[in-house]
## 1
Amino acid sequence: MSGGVDSSVAAALLKEKGHEVVGMTIRVKPADDASDDIQVARRVAEKLGIAHHTVDCREVFSRKVVDHFCSEYSWGRTPNPCVRCNEHVKFDALLKKARELGAEFIATGHYARIERVGGSGRYQLKKGSDSGKDQSYFLYFFQQDVMGRILLPLGEMKKEDVRDIARSLGFASADREESHDVCFVAKGNYRGFVGARMPQASEPGPILDRQGNVLGQHRGILSYTVGQRKGLRLSYDEPQYVLAIDTGRNAIIVGCKADVYGDELIASGLHWIEFDALEQPIEVKAKIRYRHREADALVTPLVRGEAHVKFVQPQMAITPGQAVVFYRGSVVVGGGTIERVGGI
């Protein structure tokens, strides 16, 4: 329970169905930073008449999420900390705590669905019914041995219906705007946050065209991501976009908009939900960012557990470090991390 509207309503719905519910809030920030969130969650638990526990996840969060976030930016990649947090904190540390408490399930306020296939008995991860809020993209790492212990009460619901329930229960979070900032970075200043820990990523360097000509100077590679147009401060005949980040030369490579498009990538760190391992090429719809439209692609297994993803149509700004998630209809097949752009 974060104290937000989604997790609060999820707890309320489960209690209404007759479950014995216990609230758990993860502590991922220093105590003085996290106290407000924890107090809000505790008040929601009191309002619902359920017990509340705080789970100290600061060490694993710092190591698995924050350190990884900073390291990825220092290597010219664009990480997705929400995926890392879900995998290593919310659905790992919380499962362990749930076992200690003797709980049968853990539940969250994610907008996604878990269903069991009758014949095989295998679990499927499916998109949430609210297409505008579907969060299955952030959960592609789910494994079969834990999916049977996870409840997602909001999977069939619309966000506005969740807010209506929160209003009826008098939750203060009912009409609170959602934050899209990285939760551990104050005021969204990730450049200052990463720069303080990885000063080399703030060092200026050359902005190059595809032929290696110097067009200008950048402010440090952590200030840029593939597909970015603003902030380059270049005087050029046509708008320039970041095509790649070369950490070896501490250089930003730029080009015109057409050059930002690519039709293949290599993915690593793969997880599969629909089967245990990818053994032959499969056709899927692939999503290269949370808000990116799914696109037809062929996924082919490679050695070392990687996969080659070939799109039918070129995609804009395929970005190393981001998650690529594979779908068949509403079902999540699996996913991984974009390792590099291009083919084998």
## 2
Amino acid sequence: MLELRSLSLTLAWRNIWRHPRRTWLTVSAMVFSNCLLVFMNCLQAGMYQLMIDSTLDIFTGHIQLQAPGYLDEPDIRKSIPRIQSQAARVREELEGVAVSARASGFALASSDERSYGIQLIGVQPESEALVSTLPGLINQGRYLQVSDQKTVVIGSVLARNLKVGLGDELVILGSGRDGSMAADVLTIVGILESNMPDIDRNMAFITLDYFQDVFFMQDSGHSIVIHVEDFSLIATKAAQLNRYFAQNDDLVVLDWETLEEGLRQAIEADLVSAWFIYAVLIVLVAFSVMNTQLMSVLERTREFGIVMALGVRATHMVRQVLLEAGLLATLGLLLGVSLGALLVLIISQTGLAFPGMEEVMGRFNLPDRLYPELTLFALFLGPAIVFMSSMLAALYPALRLYLLQPIEAMKVA
């Protein structure tokens, strides 16, 4: 049996090289498509990672702990008790993460000339820079310090709308956790520019301790933000947090896909549109394989008729033709994956930059180059689909052999 299989493989290899030019044209089409699919899939993975980083690193974080229902209906009373000690516990329980606690409330901010509704965020200055890039986007002045009281950092658009600058005073008026009035006069010590309208226009930042005093929060807050060093471990860290807080019904664990559902949907929509284009390429390659195999079968019709007359079953010849197609597809897969991986490795070292990308990404305090991400999934998904499509395309020429009549076939010139 082993000798028979070895003989079939040898015959299949010789048969595909009966016409070297035709074989190389077919293999070249598969190599090109596989190489392109590997590169584009890895480039997409890198682009999606950059999209995720650019969105989550600015403010959201990878994981958050919140009170139940706070994400859908933010309410100052839906708070986490002892939030700073809870954040310290998370730091102790999890390795490879950065943690910071926040509180959030809505207030009316007034200058000498104008008033606007804003979202006031209480942060821990000593750890906020570990989970957010906003502290590095200060355009004027400085960021908050641990000892700050009655100071605030605001967005550039909010500063322009209120017609205020560094050193000016800002009056805030809101509702405390207990329903009482929360009001105070703050001094602007920093103006940040994130180039994100929702942040620059609507947000202001004070220290968490001061927020708790002004809004009568005692030791409570609203979210514990977690940044995971290794993005692939987010699900693992979220599962660990679920185990740690399983007995605490007052906390829920939210990963980035829940926190930024729109981002996840945008990535999924882009994947669908990209694979629609890839499908056209795969179909063209499949037709190329079918054409090659069909020509090969038609050219050898007389040979097939002779061997069938000698008692060889059609099933054996079908397997032989499919084996030839498999060799073609395997050759295209190996060469395409190798060249695609080599291309990705080269570009992953140097990065890929587009005109104007450095300036745009610099505004968000993000890398100015796009780096493809080489993963097994991105490496073999496209080529595997090309391989299966090629084998399916070879079925039609192979199955024609079942209809072959030996006497008629031997008459073919």
## 3
Amino acid sequence: MKKLAHDAIPRVAPANIGEVVRFPIVVLLEDIRSAHNVGAILRTADALLVREVLLAGITPGGDHKGVHKSALGAQDFVPWRRIESTTSEIKHLKTLGYTVAALEITDSPQPTESLLIGAYPICLVVGNEVAGISEATLNECDFALELPQLGVKQSLNVSIATAVMMFDLQRRYRTLTQ
């Protein structure tokens, strides 16, 4: 085993990013307070070739200085846009054939292993670091996905939870399409 030098790591050339086929996953961030969390999510979205990141409410945009600090340039390669209304955007995505999943602790979570190919394209809705997803938004979601946690706190940082779920959604999609 040999560690790769930075310039030896296989990657998409920035000039070719527009030609890359992205995975049918959209991430909708509702009222995320921390620019650092948004930057970390954008960085993971770049790593996974997520289709788009939607920013709602108080969520800082990809042009925010704090987002730049943790995104390390990913904000320039991941399609992102601000939306006016989370519930309106969810309704619109559903007309385009998206399934909408809340990343939230609920009384009836669904494991990603139960997702079938018909669940894609999928929009993963992620909520505020403290309050989570608003009730109005949760009511628009088709189901909830939850990360099983075994510890005392039952709490992960929102960027960590989102990253784990994005990886799991991509893994499931790749399994279903092989």
